[in-house]
Amino acid sequence: MAFLIVSIVVFNLAVILMPKRITLGEIYATSWFAAFFHFIADMFLDVKYDFYGYFSHGVDYKSLLFTFGIYPAISTLFLNFFPFYQTLLTKLIYIFWWTIFSIIYEWTVLHTSTYYYNGWHLWYSALCYPVCLLILVGNFKILRWANNK
């Protein structure tokens, strides 16, 4: 639990202190999208199929620390520095390094007893992270498009 609290503080301080390339409205909207996306994924993969979970089996209020403490901050950091106007290769490399970071972070959280696997494997996450990051980018592009209308 201590690692989770430290992570929340560090990630959110990074968001507060970073030079902002995205607006506060975009941060707000993408933070809610990240939390919603996390709820949907966990509704099926954790609650329905019990592939993994947070702290203990079933619904746990402490898992909200991940939903509202980690996911919005990480999505904000990811999108703030995303190379929107760079080459496709640069974007793919950026997503690759965020996937590596996410795998290492997940492995660390797994070994702090705040997260457990029950049929899930780290390599499943390695396959899912790039897709989730691309969904986050797609949502952000839709948000920017809608704001410009």
Automatic annotation (TrEMBL):
- Give the stretches traversing the membrane: 27-45, 65-85, 92-110, 122-143
Which domain of life, per UniProt?
Answer: Bacteria
Q: Which UniProt keywords apply?
A: Membrane, Transmembrane, Transmembrane helix
Q: Which NCBIfam families match?
A: CBO0543_fam
How is this protein named in the record? CBO0543 family protein
Which organism's genome codes for this protein?
A: Scopulibacillus cellulosilyticus
